[in-house]
Design goal:
alpha/beta, seven-stranded mixed beta sheet, seven-stranded parallel beta sheet, 10 helices, 33 strands, 24% helix, globular
């Protein structure tokens, strides 16, 4: 039997995703029409002999998370449970803390997946690769360009055997163009290696006579503490994929991930994509429209547009490269480009909301998206435009490269002006 563990982090993480993560936990943010986590769960549910999916994180249990778990269990017919950490224990500390739950039932192997990655999830291929290499531990890797590789965990492999010879997390100089994708396949033996690090942490903390050392000893990182130690010992291998993969760190990267998933729907879920039909809005490229959305037939949507539940879109509206969230209203002849329109927000007639895309270099097949910080040197980094929850944009206003929160009063003096 197999299990899967999805690491969802907690409210102290995902700061680059604000203000969107203020309204829902980041793993539940909709990407290509469904919560980010659902893409992981769908992939896991397709694996034969997958008995259980565990979410590990330190979010307080809340109504949104509970509702999502209940719906996902019903849809995918697989047990899904949330295990809450008492504190942020990092990528290895969390799974070590809940090792008894993970090993319950005697799984032969289990997947570990970071929630903030977007991928085609080649899980079956990883299982086959693991069997071919003696049922050892497997990292999913992909190729990045030389410059961007230093923003990730870098893997040096034996090209003949695919063994990981050396692992460095975010090196200061170029090490390898093979990067860690944040998706792993482990055997139960991994807990022996994590346990050794835990014991060493305890000893170090006792020597330092630290207060609350029992808590900090469990903060263990898969990347720096485990992979670095296992590399070169014949216990860690890398399966390289050339399928799509990206991180979802910032709001801009969510729009890029939505594009990747919408394109993937052509093969996996064509029923989720809107089509051009008489009496319906014009569709260009890949577009997801929730059945509860009310859209005027003169609107033009796409490419890469996701329309959430209860959205209202008026006559002559143009939307491109954007995510429109639950309950939003786009009034007649408004234009939304490279933006995320928040829950229950309103864009007035003839208003224009536009951001700057932060896509990877299209001329470099190995380029990844740069997850920029919101601010640099006290200035807003040009990126997509984000409208928070319940934002009201008046008619005929132009919004460019902005983060607009609901307390901002746009009705005073902003008409026909650009907000930076």
């Amino acid at each position: 039997m197999l299990k899967a563990v999805i690491l969802i982090g907690g409210p102290q993480k995902g700061t680059r995703f604000r203000p969107l993560s203020f309204e829902v936990p980041k793993p539940l943010f909709p990407v290509a029409g469904v919560p980010m986590l659902q893409h992981h769960i769908e992939a896991c549910a397709k694996i034969p002999n997958m008995k259980e999916i565990l979410l590990v994180g330190f979010y307080q249990p809340n109504e949104a998370l509970s509702r999502f778990l209940s719906c996902a269990q019903q849809e995918f017919k697989i047990p899904i449970r949330y295990l809450q950490e008492y504190s942020a224990l990092s990528t290895a500390g969390g799974i070590y803390h809940f090792r008894d739950q993970i090993l319950s039932g005697g799984p032969e192997a289990f997947f570990i997946m970071n929630a903030d990655v977007c991928s085609e999830f080649p899980l079956l291929e990883m299982l086959e690769f693991q069997k071919e290499h003696g049922n050892t531990h497997v990292i999913l890797g992909t190729t990045a360009n030389r410059k961007q590789s230093m923003n990730y965990g870098c893997i040096v492999e034996n090209q003949d055997t695919n063994e990981v010879l050396h692992y460095v997390e975010k090196p200061s100089t170029f090490v390898s163009d093979i990067i860690n994708c944040g998706i792993y396949l482990f055997t139960p033996e991994i807990f022996q290696h994590i346990g050794l690090v835990f014991q060493k942490n305890q000893q170090d903390l006792l020597l330092e006579e630290q207060m609350n050392g029992w808590q900090r000893a469990e903060v263990i990182r898969l990347e720096q503490d485990i992979f670095t130690a296992l590399a070169g010992r014949g216990k860690l291998y890398v399966y390289k994929t050339d399928q799509f993969w990206s991180q979802i760190k910032s709001a801009g990267s969510a729009i890029y991930a939505s594009r990747l998933y919408l394109n993937h729907y052509r093969k996996t879920h064509p029923e989720r994509l809107a089509n051009n039909e008489e009496g319906r809005p014009t569709i260009r490229g890949n577009v997801y429209i929730h059945p509860t959305a009310n859209i005027d037939p003169t609107a033009v949507l796409g490419p890469n547009v996701s329309i959430g539940t209860g959205v209202t879109i008026g006559a002559g509206v143009r939307v491109r490269e954007s995510i429109i969230l639950h309950g939003a209203t786009l009034q007649d002849h408004s234009c939304v480009l490279n933006s995320i329109v928040g829950w229950d927000s309103t864009i007035g007639k003839w208003a224009r909301v536009e951001g700057t895309p932060s896509d990877p270099n299209p001329n470099d097949p190995y380029a990844k998206i740069d997850s920029e910080t919101l601010f640099r040197e006290g200035k807003l980094t040009p990126s997509i435009t984000i409208l928070g929850c319940n934002v009201n944009i008046p008619s005929e206003v132009i919004i460019l490269n902005a983060i607009v929160l609901p307390h901002k009063d746009l009705n005073r003096g902003f008409k026909n002006q650009i907000i930076l």
